[in-house]
Amino acid sequence: MSDWAIETQQLGCRFGDAWAVNGLDLQVPRGAVFGLLGENGAGKSTTMQMLTGLLLPDQGQASVLGFDPARDEVAVKSRVGYVPEKYGFYDYMRVTEIIAFVAAYHDNWNQELEQELLSDFELPAQTRVGDLSKGMRAKLALLLALAYEPDLLLLDEPAGGLDPASRRNFIETILGRYQQEGKTILLSSHLLNEFSGLIDHVGFIKNGRLDLVAPLPSLQQKMKRLRLVFEQGTPPQLRLDGALQVQLNGREAVATVADFEEEKTLAGLTVYQPTHVMVEDLSLEDMFIARLGRG
Description:
Distance between the termini: 42 Å
Strand content: 25-35%
Helix content: 25-40%
Shape: elongated
């Protein structure tokens, strides 16, 4: 058995003449919680759709739990839970009806877990899906993906419609338990800091290509924010090796560096003679903004 729950080689998909994903080489370890991070339009949703077999690639190939989603769609869908950013439901069905409809396709449907999630999410069982609020539709999508206990979860903005209390319960309780069971999660979310306690690997995707992939602890050791204070104001030509961002503000310079090595990095600052140097850790959101060149 491969060490990778997901592995892609030069995977690509285009719409017309534009490549949404282009030459994607991605490896997601089994049992990892992998954050696929990128701006809107970077290719995250397209990647997940190819991994489930909903979109066929125009180049390259993918392996999901040892199966090719382009050829083994049924095998993949029976083992993968997918929550898309936009849900497609039969709005005329009641909540219990759509649950029964989906459950019929899964021999491993866990009715006890179904009832637990119905209770946790406070879903109105007899309400028609079309009458549910955005948040309730999000909870229903999560229930339908979780109740057959898939080996792999693909979550595309899974908590976007949830209120803060429900979001915390979902992340800390439900996903936390799923993680403890040793299953794999690939998620994309703009709520980066809220998921950061679960994520152990990250991949930054930009223009359909991976910009960086690393275990999160390794990235946290390498990426740092430096605050430099100068007695006479910031030097006009402040250059730092590996700097992703440098902001000058009066007597203070703030730099985000990609490959921090304490002795080497601090030695390189002596030429500028700062009076104070402070090294700060970055949040996952800080890393995202710095890596993708925004802010």
